[in-house]
Structures are given as C-alpha cells and as structure tokens.
Amino acid sequence: MKKYVGKRFLTAVPVLLMITIGAFIMINLAPGEPTDLYITPDATVQQVEATRRALGLDQPYPVQYIRWLGRAVTGDLGISFSTRYPVLPIIISRLGPTIVLMGTTLLFSYIVAIPLGIISARKQGTWVDTFLTGSAFVGVSIPNFFLGLGLIYIFAVQLNWFPTGGMQELGVDGSIFSVLRHLVLPVIVLSAFYIANMTRYMRATMIQVYGENYIRTATAKGLAQKVILTKHGIRNALIPVITIVGTDLPRLVGGAIVTEQIFQWPGLGRLTITAIQQRDLPILMAITILSAFVVLLANIFVDVMYAVVDPRIKYD
Amino acid sequence: MEETTVLEVKDLAISFQTFEGVVKAVRGVEFMLKKGETLAIVGESGSGKSVSTKAINRLLPEKNTLIERGEVLFEGQDLLKLSEKDMQGIRGNDIAMIFQDPMTSLNPTMTVGKQIAEPIIAHKNVSKEEAKEKALELMDLVGIHHPKKSYKNYPHQFSGGMRQRVMIAIALACEPKILIADEPTTALDVTIQAQILDLMNKLKDELDTSIIFITHDLGVVAQMADRVAVMYAGQIVEIGTADEIFYNPMHPYTWGLLASMPTLDVDQKNLYTIPGSPPNLLHPPVGDAFAARNDYALAIDFQQEPEVFKVTDTHYAKTWLLHPDAPDVTPPLKVVRRKEKYEALFSVKMYANSTGGGINGG
Ligand SMILES: Nc1ncnc2c1ncn2[C@@H]1O[C@H](COP(=O)(O)OP(=O)(O)OP(=O)(O)O)[C@@H](O)[C@H]1O
Ligand SMILES: [Mg+2]
Which residues cross the membrane (chain A) (predicted)? Predict the structure, then answer.
C-alpha cells in the first residue's frame, strides 16, 4: 500500500508540470498586463519598461516560465506583483480560513446527507422520500450566489441573526464562538449542493444494495432490520459513495471562490478573485499548483479508501 | 413409524401488483411437510416455486405483494399472521433458506466466519466466542478446509461450490426444523453439484431436518426427494411420493416433464419438449391452465378447472383425466415404460408392506 501511494505521487509529477504550463499560458493569454495596474496613467514609456523589467516581464514567455519553475522547485514561489510580498506566506495565511470553511462544509454535508439518503431509500415511495428527493433536486439546481444573497438578505439583513460576512468581528480577536457565528451562512450555502448531491447518491446506492442477494440472505437469517442496515447495508453502500467524496473535494475548491467572495471570507477563494483582477501571476500560479495538488490528494485518498472499505481491492 | 407434520401450506394464493396489472403468481397451493423428509418442487420457470416458498419465510417484497388467501401453519401458528418481529425469530432459526446464487448471496465486505456466526448470535443466547466456536464446527461439518484460517477470509476468496457450502453452514447454523433450498446447485458445475447434493443428504440425516428442495432438474429430484410436487402456472398439479411421480404419473404435464427428461438410453437430439409456453398469469386462462399445451386435453379442460383427484393416500393429481367419465388415454411411450417398471417395483413393495412398515402421508 505504501509503495502504491508513493508510485501514485511519482506518476503525478509530470501531470502537475503540465498543469503549471497550461496555467501559465492561460494566464498570459488573458487580455491586460500586470503593469496596467501598477503604473499611473501619466507614466512614461521608460517607466513602464522599468516596471516590466523589475517584474521580469521583459523576458520571452518560455524564459519567464523556466525561471518561475526553477524557483518553485526550491520552494520559492516568487513575489506577489500587487503587494510585493512573498507569495508563500500570503497563501499560507489564506489557507487556514479556507480549510476551516471547506472542512466544516464537507463534515456538515456528509453528516446530514448520508442519514437523509438512507432514510429516503428505506422509505422509498413515501411522502418522506418524495420530499427529500424534491429538496435534493432544488439543492443541486440552486446557484451558490443566489442562495448566498438570499440567506444574507433574510438572516443577516432582516433578522440580524448572523453577520453578513467576514470571519470574525472587526477589531476583536476571534473567539471560536465568533468564528462559528460567521461560519453558519457560508457553510449552509456551500453545503447545499453537497448535501443534495450526496443524499441523492446515497439513496440510489442504498436502494441498489437492498436489492442485492446478500441482503436477502441477511433477512433470511432472521436478523433485525437495524443489524441488516448497519452490518450489511451501509458498509456496502459506502463503496460507491467514496467516488462522490473524490469528486466533491476538487469541486469544493471552485465552489469556495464564489462563496468566499459573497461572504467576504478571508480565504484562498477571495485571494484568487483579487489575483485574477490584478493579473498577479505568481499568486495565481501558486493557487493553481495548490488546487491541482488537492485534486491529486483527493484521488489518492479515494483509492486508499476503496481498499479500506472493500476487502476485494488490494494494491501491491 | 411416527410421522409428524412440521409445516402445512393451505390454499395459498399470492399476486403481485405490477405496471401491467395484477400477476396471479400462486393460485391455491396446498402441501404439507413431514419431519425429516425431503419434498421436491418441480416445474417450469415462472410456475411459482420460488414465490410459494419465499412466502413461507415471508421474504416477498412487501411493497407489491398481495397474499390473497391461505395459511402457512408452523407449530400451530399461521406464519402469515405473525408480526415482523416474531417472524424474525423464526427466520434462520426454525426455517432457513439456501438460494441459487452462491456468488452473490454472501456479503462481500464481511468475513465468511462472521456471516456464519451471525444467525447464532441473533437467535441463540450465546457469547461471541461460543458463536465463533459453533461457526468453526459448522465450517468443518460442511467441508470447508482449514476452518480457523477460512474464518477470516472474505467470500471473494472462495469458489462457487465453497460459497454454497458457506451458505449451507449459515442455513444450518441454528439447526432449523425446515430448510428451503431454492435451486441450490443450478449455478454450479456438475461435479460440484453432486458434492453439494451429497452433503445436503448427509446433513439431513444427521440433523433430521425437513427439506423443501426446488429444482428444474428431475435427475436431482430422483437423487434427493422422498416426495415430489409438480407445479404449473401457480398451482400444484400433481403430488406424490417420488416413486409415484416417476413411475405412475397421472397428470399430462408430469408426463411431458418426464418425457423431456434426458436419460442414458435416449438419443439426446430427439428429446421431447412440451410444446408452447406457460400462460400469462396476468390473465390466467379459464379451465385447466395446461389445456392449450396438452395433447390429451378434453373439451371440459377449456371450460372448467379440474378438481383434485385422489390416486392413493399419498398421490393426488389435478386433471379431468382421472374423472370416472373421462375416456381412457395412453400416456407417451416413455411414461408407459416407466409405469411397467413401477408395477414390477410396486408388487415388491406390496410384499414388503404386508410384512410391516408402510407408506403414509398425504
Ligand atoms: N416481486 C415480483 N413482482 C412481480 N412479479 C413477480 C415477483 N416475483 C415473482 N413474480 C412473478 O411470479 C411468477 C412466479 O415466479 P417464481 O419466481 O415463483 O417462479 P419459479 O417457479 O421460481 O421460476 P424459476 O424456475 O425461474 O425460478 C413469475 O411470473 C414472476 O414473474
Ligand atoms: Mg425460482
């Protein structure tokens, strides 16, 4: 197993390289230049040139990329164009809030969705099932920004139960309680899709598992419904559900961008938006590698989990 | 010889709600099972063998199953009237089942040992260690090699035949009074099939369990059964001892089944097949359901359902041919030959009977 995971990381290296090249090309293809933002309208041609040279933008693209790569492998991700601070500390400072938001979202989503899916499947065809399936349909269809703005309007502006945004009260050092209060709305918005999606998937898998012959065997043994569900149903239903976890993780990276923007959450998502607006190439490259890495980790995690849950799967 | 009845199925009728309409899958099935005997149920695909026997253990899907009438009497109580909770105490404990597909009937994510120990823990008042001990004994009993090592193995590490042995161990775990085996060897190749049948016969004698054995294969019936019930279109059309069904069959459908049975002395290519196909049970036909495929059908077969006629105390058939007014017909040649053999056999038995013993039942 260790050997397998090691191999997976090694084979991922060329993929990560290709992704950085792709990202580099796309960022440079976008119209506009970093220098547009850092110089005053009355700057002379010489001043613009000097800025470009200072940022290394006077070099041909391949040279720029190689230089970036050369430094990146040593752990130096460069200096942010817009703030002139090193990229790494910026990313790290934004990582915490994003991990808190994403972690809470996934945990919350699965804790809610897996039981809902099971209930929906076991009550198939009843009004409970119809209600849950209907809600799940709404949940996967509703756009994040719409739900976010709606919730802010109702619960923050009208009822004043939760703050409209941010991660803690200004000027106050964030207590856990304050952070939790700020987390509620963004987590609900981000979770909507994952809860809905996982509920639907769990329901379908559970229905399928209950049609399997080994459930019939378990019933014929005279086991109680509860035992059949916990010992025979859920374990087997989790195998295909792991796949969904594998696609949820990377998707969350994208989902967080919009949600963090709406809720002024000081995480990587908002950093991404500002970096795009400012053509802050070193920041964008760093975020790209990080995202690619998350996807890679998610994939390896999923494969390892398969082996943990399903005794038929062995890697060596 | 004292013979006690362990199970009695009375006038059982079951239908299913489907998109096309109501399928009348079982239409008045009646039989009884005696202690220690093997009753085989034979009949074409879709004749209602699985449905009638699943109904005994209440394993039919609750959603679309309608038990229209009937009783399943086990130890004086009607199983069809029990609460789900009480039924759980009977399933796997008093009445156990083995199914056709050993490859898919075991939980792939649980060790086989645990799967065997599970019903013991559920029904018997024993500790986990005692259940494990008993499971290891069972594994040895059904011929699984190295029980200690195999206990921790998962089903995918076993062959089909070995998995069916595991299924048998599960079924026998609580020493049930009745074992229902629904085509337990159909999915296995011939040598493995013979081994499993031998095992079942051996265990039946050891544990004195009554068996209901469902199969398509009359060869298997001859090897296993004390009595045979022949099902057609949701009804038992003939029931009797194995000798009576094989050597003195009365129903034209049984004649057809026997004539289509491959034997060593018959050219396989010229094997008889019953013409046509079974009726659609969405709309069961008027009269005898077999009439349309029956070379021996009488006019009345198309108008009125036959009564059940008694041939002997143990032998009954549902055909108008047994009515006193019915014309004499000659069964197919193969069946006539069997009857001749039987008569020779029967005279020997008569002699045996007069010196003691007897064939009882109903
Ligand atoms: N859950 C169900 N819903 C609807 N119809 C069903 C259901 N189960 C069985 N049937 C129908 O009931 C009839 C009898 O089925 P059954 O499974 O008892 O046949 P069988 O004699 O066991 O056949 P086979 O030899 O193929 O196993 C068939 O027509 C079948 O389609
Ligand atoms: Mg069947």
Answer: 9-30, 99-119, 131-156, 176-196, 283-309
* A283-286, Cβ contacts within 8 angstroms, sequence gap of 24 or more: A283/A80, A283/A81, A283/A82, A283/A87, A283/A90, A283/A91, A284/A23, A284/A27, A285/A20, A285/A23, A285/A24, A285/A27, A285/A68, A285/A72, A285/A77, A285/A78, A286/A77, A286/A78, A286/A87, A286/A88, A286/A91
| pLDDT interval class at B355 (50, 70, 90) | very low
> What is the pTM assigned to this prediction?
0.84
Which ligand minimizes its atom distance to the CA of B277?
A: 1
Q: What percent of chain B has pLDDT over 70?
A: 92
Q: Among A269-273, B206-210, B267-271, name the one with the lowest average pLDDT.
A: B267-271
| Nearest partner of B13 among B82, B86, B80, B97, judged by Cα | B80
- B50 at interface of A, judged by CB pairs closer than 8 A: no
Cβ-in-10-Å burial (0-12, 13-18, 19+) of A57 comes to middle
What ipTM is given for this predicted complex?
0.87
- DSSP label at residue A79: B
Whose alpha carbon is nearest atom 29 of ligand 1? B46
pLDDT, greater one: A168 or B230: B230
What residue type is assigned to position A97 of the chain? P
- State chain A's maximal CA–CA distance in angstroms: 87
Structure tokens given for B224: 């296993």
Q: A312 and chain B: CB distance < 8 Å anywhere?
A: yes
Q: How far apart are CA A157 and CA B234, in angstroms?
A: 68
Whether B50 has a pLDDT exceeding 90, the answer reads: yes
Q: Which of B50, B183, B230 has the most ligand 1 atoms within 8 A of CB, as the residue to mutate?
A: B50
- CB within 8 Å of chain B, chain A residues 220-249: 220-224, 227, 231-232, 235-236, 239
Apex CA A296: angle with CA A280 and CA A298, to 5°? 115
Comparing alpha-carbon positions, the chain A residue that sits nearest to B91 is: A222
Element (H, E) at A163: none
Q: Looking at the domain A92-309, which fold is it?
A: MetI-like fold (1.10.3720)
Which H or E run contains B149?
helix B147-150
Domain boundaries, chain A: 35-76, 92-309
B88 touches chain A (CB under 8 A): yes
Candidates B15, B16, B13; CA nearest to B28 is: B13
Does the distance separating the beta carbons of B118 and A223 come in below 8 Å?
yes
Phi/psi for B9 (5° steps) reads -105, 125
Element counts in chain B: helices (H) and strands (E): 11, 12
Name residue A136's amino acid.
A
pLDDT tens, position by position, B164-177? 999 999 999 999 99
Angle value at C-alpha A127, between A124 and A129, nearest 5 degrees: 40
Enumerate the β-bridge partners of residue B65: B16
Ligand nearest to the CA of B278: 1
Backbone angles phi and psi of B54, in degrees to 5: -65, -30
Residue A24: Cβ within 10 Å count: 20
Which numbered atom of ligand 1 lies nearest the CA of B100?
27
How far from B4 is each of B33, B95, B178, B224, CA to CA, in Å? Answer: 9, 16, 13, 20
